[in-house]
Every structure is written in C-alpha cells, then in structure tokens.
Design a protein that fits this description.
It is built from 18 helices and 25 strands. It has 663 residues and is an alpha+beta fold. Strands 1, 3, 4, 5, 8, 9 and 11 form a seven-stranded mixed beta sheet that branches. A five-stranded antiparallel beta sheet has the order 16-25-24-21-22.
C-alpha cells in the first residue's frame, strides 16, 4: 500500500537488497558509508539484529533527506540498515568509530545489534538539536575481534512538523563516516571549520551588532531619558541572538523554536519605536499608542507560541501545528506596522540619513514579510518565492550573500549612522540649551543679590538653592531714602528656564513699581496688573516688607507664606497670588520690631522638602529649626539635607535699633 502511494506521488522507492559495502582498509582513514542503505518506516526492536533479513526492504541513499526519495510527510520512526564487510587483517581492539551529522531529528545507532550511541534522544522523552548539522557525533565501535561482516542499524526519529518546515526533510541528510576514531575527529573538525568559514560574514555582523547593542545600552543606563538608545540596543541585539538560537550547536530545538519567535517580535517592536524617534513621529500620540498596542499583541502571541514548548506537543502534533499556525499568522500580519510608519514619515522633511533608514526598513520589512509568508509556509503551499529571494547573489570565500543578508546589513549600517547623526544633533542642542541655562544663571546672579546694601540697624543673611540649574524663587533688597529698605520675596509657579524668565520679568516690574510707590499693598496691586495674562496660566506668590531703621514694619502678601518673627508665624490676611485675576486689592499689616528681634522670610521649597520616606519638612520642623539658628544658610542646608524637592530661598533679618542722634 505504501509503495503504491509513493508511485502515485511520482517518486517510488527501490525495493531490492543493497550489496554489502566492502572496506578494503581502514588504517588512519575515514571512509564515507555512502551508496544504498536498506530502509523501512516504522519501529521494531528486532530490526537492530544482524540476523534480521532486510532483503525485502526498499533502498535509499544517505546524504539526502528521505522526503525527496519517495517518503513524503513521513514522521516518527524509520530504520536504516547497511551491511559492511571489514578487512580480514583488522587488528583486534582497533580504535574505530562511526560519525553522524545532519540527522533529522534524533537517532540510536546499533553495531551488530549493540547500541553504541545516540544522536539526541528519541521518544518517549525526545531531545533534538535546533541546528541538526553540527556538531558531528562520533560513536566508538566496540573493541575486540570483529566478525568479517557487521550490520550498522540506525533507528531514526523525525519530529512532527511545525509551521517552520521545509519541503525536503527527515533522515540522514549527511553521509555517515566510518573509520579510525582519530581520523573521524579530524574530519569532524574539518566539517566544523568549513561551516565556520562559510558563516564568517554572518558571525561578524552578529558580533558587530552585539557590540553596538552593548554600547547603546550603556549609553541608556548612563542617561535613562535617552530611550532611543534603549530601542537601538534592543533592535541591534537581534543578529547576535539569532545566531545563538539558530546556529548554536548544543541548543535544543524546543529552546530554539520556542524563543526565536519572541526575539523576532521583541526586536520588531524595538524597530517600530526606534523609527518613531528617527523619523520624527513621536509628536503623533495616536500613532505612538497604536505602536504600543501592536507591540504588546505581537509579543504576547509569540510568548504563547513559545509556551507550547513547555509541553510534549509530539503527542498531539495536529493540535500543535494548528496552534502554531494560528499564533504565527496574526504576528506576520502585524509585521507590516514598520511599513505603515515609513509611509507616514514620507510626508515629513527628513535628513537624508533618515531617508536611508526609512528606505532600508521598508525594503527589509517587505522581504521579511514575504519570506515569512512564502518561505516558512512553502512546505504547505509549494510556493518557491522564498527560495528565490534567499538564493545567493554572489559568494565571497564561501560566504553566501543573498538579498535578505544584504538588506539587513544595509539597514543596520544606516541605523547606526542615523543614530550617530541623531546623537550628534542632540549634543549640539544640549550644548545650546546649556549655554542658555548659563546665560539664565548669569541673569539670576544679577537679579538675586549676593552682596547686600548697608541697612542701618538691620543684619541680613540669605540663601538661594534652586532645584535645577535655574529656579523660580527670587528676593530683592532695595534701599529707600531715610535709612528705610524694601524687602521682597517671591516664588513663581513651575521650574526651570521658563520660571527663571518670569523671575526676570517680575524683578524688573518690582524695580519700576518702587519708583512710583513704596507702599507694599500698592506694589503688589501694580505687579498683579502687569502680570495678568502674561504667565501662561501660571502665577506667582510674593511678600513685600517695608522696614525703617527704628523697627517700623509694613507687610503685604500675595498668597505667599507668612514670615516667622522670633520663631512664631506672623498672621497675615489671605490673598490671591499674582497674575490670576485682573483687579485684586491687597491689604497691608503693620508690625513693630524690637531690639534683638529676628524676622525670617522663606519660600515653600523649605516647607515642602521631602525625605526618602515621603515625609514633608513641615511647619513644626521649621519652628524647631528657627529656635536653634537664625542663619539663612544653615536653615537652607538643613532642608536640603532632609531632601530638596523644590527651589529653596531663605532671608533672615536681625534688628538692632539705630541710636537716636543727640542734637
């Protein structure tokens, strides 16, 4: 029945007994055991016996999978047998062996009925290699006097098919080699060297990609805000990981097949996010959100597919194949997202380096999707497009260069070049921004005094500690005629450069207002009119104090924290901050200072200092601190040590009355 089906398939096996292979001499040589072997699908332990009559079995060639020799879609067990006539002068105890390579998928080898070794592990607990061709396995032949004719029987097991399956699979894809064990090891070394030499370019690209990935990851760890470097590290790790998963000789098929899909999906997602950065698409929130959704879906599908390898799916191969196809096809459909991003980017004006990335990403993704559909599924469809794309365009020193390899190499080079250009541009922008911050710091040094004018009867200390390079706190000490002085402390909402520019606006407005009036309430009203509508929905708090040399003090607050007098908070009427409403009237409060009195003005950065446990510095700690010291620098340092979270400004006044002059 099997023979009839094979004839109908157009490839009938030959049913005749193969002549024994006569080996004239072994010595230090290694001899290929080629030619016809007896072959039979199925499994029977008696088939290992040299006494078994295999003359009715069909003939088959080694060095070729069995599918191309009339056994289409054969999985499970099948046996190879070969009769070998050994030399008559073979010395007892000769160091002989048998070498196997390129066997799909696992096997047990019998020498005259005795098990001498295995290639992987056959069921009930099968283990087979992800790369079935390397390394070759050398098995020692039993020592002692050998009979003149021996039978080599190889029990081969082919795993059920996964979605990733090719048309010609199964059995002894390489010819077994028999001979001296040392010669076999030399032949195996030569085989491995030939493989290594033919894969030098792929290995070099994988190593280069791994180095680029490591450098990008180190750059991201140094500055966690540079997420583009993180996605570059994730994407450029792909060639290195694929070489490990697909070429590492001792990696099992379950680990390789179960992991490679997750690597492809994770690095595809990394490429999408990298394109968002490089092609300037991050300003489109919906596009960013859809990229995240696609990334989660495609990676989740591959995680589920990889999880199938945790179970013995060889007991339910049809269910596994359907699940494999069902999880793979949606992943392949989502791979077009890179094409979507590139098409959207065509509407932008990009640097030529970025256009190269877009072009090679588009071409690579088109070829990748084509290979995924046609090459991975060609066993089931018969389409040969994948074979045409992966056919070598040229060969250098045994290294095959096909369309897929060339496009991936060009994409990697273009991405590295574009990232280098991007980082160079970012450094230039950072340099310009740093220069702007330095200029802003210089402006603040001018606006916030480090040296104070001499105020009769008043000793002043100050501390200004911005949370960033520049801050939104400010204070001013303005001498007035007659030995009086105007003291102003304020806080602008927000941080950084914008807050610092608002401070410059405020200080200029304060200086202008003082030329018109020295009344604190009128100054605040004038500031509010100037700032309304100019703070971009922000605001500023401000406290103005007019103090004369005899202890007379007038205060007005625009939503600012009240000062402390001798470690006790001064009660002030509530009022709105500056800039919120157009017409706001502010009230003044009178106060008289006596000899030795201390007045402390501060911003909310002192109150809101926060430690690692999230605890605020708070009013109680401020009160306790002011009983111990009245030096602004010590007060600010205590809050910084506790945990600075905002700009901190402290201004202290110690009053000593000016002696009255005797007429």
């Amino acid at each position: 029945m099997l023979a009839s089906l094979l004839v109908l398939a157009g490839c009938a096996p030959v049913c005749r007994a193969a002549a024994p292979l006569v080996i004239d001499g072994v010595g230090r040589a290694a001899i290929s055991v080629d030619g016809p072997w007896q072959f039979h699908p199925g499994d029977d332990p008696s088939w290992s016996s040299p006494a078994f009559d295999d003359s009715s079995w069909n003939s088959i060639q080694t060095g070729r999978p069995w599918e191309g020799q009339g056994y289409r879609s054969l999985t499970g067990f099948a046996w190879y047998r070969r009769h070998i006539v050994l030399p008559a002068n073979l010395a007892p105890g000769s160091n002989l062996g048998l070498s196997l390579a390129g066997l799909q998928d696992a096997a047990e080898v019998y020498w005259n009925g005795q098990l001498i070794g295995s290639y992987g592990k056959v069921p009930p607990n099968p283990v087979w290699a992800g790369n079935p061709f390397f390394p070759p396995v050398v098995m020692a032949v039993p020592g002692g006097q050998q009979p003149s004719e021996v039978v080599v029987a190889i029990r081969v097991w082919k795993a059920p098919y996964a979605y990733l399956a090719f048309p010609d699979m199964g059995g002894l894809a390489y010819v077994p080699i028999f001979g001296d064990a040392e010669a076999l090891r030399a032949a195996s070394t030569g085989l491995e060297y030939g493989w290594l030499r033919s894969h030098l370019f792929i290995l070099a690209i994988a190593l280069l990609s791994g180095i680029v990935s490591l450098l990008a990851l180190l750059g991201w760890l140094r500055d966690r805000s540079q997420w583009m470097l993180f996605w570059l590290a994730a994407y450029t790790m792909r060639p290195f990981l694929l070489v490990v998963l697909e070429q590492w000789p001792k990696l099992s098929w379950r680990v390789s097949y179960g992991t490679v899909g997750m690597v492809y999906s994770a690095t595809d997602a990394a490429l999408w996010f990298l394109l968002l950065y490089l092609l300037g698409l991050r300003d489109n929130p919906r596009l960013v959100q859809w990229t995240r959704v696609c990334a989660v879906i495609v990676f989740g599908l591959q995680v589920f597919e990889g999880a199938e390898q945790l179970f013995d799916w060889t007991r339910a191969p049809r269910f596994f194949l359907l699940a494999d196809v069902g999880l793979t096809i949606p992943s392949l459909l989502l791979q077009v997202w890179a094409i979507v991003l590139v098409v959207i980017a065509f509407r932008k004006r990009l640097d030529p380096a970025l256009w190269l990335v877009a072009l090679f990403a588009l071409l690579t993704d088109l070829v990748s999707n084509s290979l995924s559909w046609f090459d991975l599924g060609n066993r089931w469809t018969g389409w040969t497009f994948g074979a045409e794309v992966t056919a070598p365009l040229f060969t250098i020193a045994g290294n095959r260069f096909d369309t897929w390899t060339i496009l991936n190499t060009l994409l990697l080079i273009s991405i590295v070049y574009a990232v280098w250009r991007y980082e160079l541009d970012q450094r230039r922008q950072q340099t310009r921004l740093s220069e702007e911050f330095r200029n802003a710091q210089e402006v603040q040094r001018i606006l916030i005094p480090e040296e104070f004018p001499t105020l009769p009867g008043i000793a002043v200390t100050s501390a200004y500690r911005p949370a960033q390079e520049v801050g939104g706190d400010f204070f001013q000490i303005i001498p007035l005629p007659g030995g009086a002085a105007l003291l102003v402390v304020g806080d602008v909402s927000g941080k950084g450069l914008h807050a610092a520019m608002t401070v410059a606006l405020l200080v200029g407005a304060i200086r202008s207002a003082v030329e018109i009036t020295t009344d604190p309430a009128e100054i605040l009203s004038g500031l509010n009119r100037r700032l309304h509508g100019r703070l971009r929905h922000g605001f500023a708090t401000c406290l103005v104090i007019r103090l004369d040399g005899h202890g007379g003090c007038v205060l007005a607050s625009a939503g600012h924290l009240p000062p402390y007098l001798n470690a006790h908070e001064v009660q002030l009427p509530s009022a709105l901050p500056l800039g919120l409403l157009d017409a706001v009237q502010y009230d003044s409060v009178g106060l008289r200072l006596g000899p030795g009195d201390h007045l402390v003005l501060y911003t909310d950065g002192l109150l809101e200092a926060r430690n690692a446990a999230g605890e605020l510095f708070g009013f109680s700690r401020i009160g306790e601190l002011l009983t111990r010291t009245q030096d602004a620098r010590q007060i600010a340092a205590a809050a910084q040590e506790f945990g600075q979270d905002d700009d901190i400004t402290v201004l202290t006044l110690s009053f000593a009355p000016v002696p009255a002059q005797v007429a």
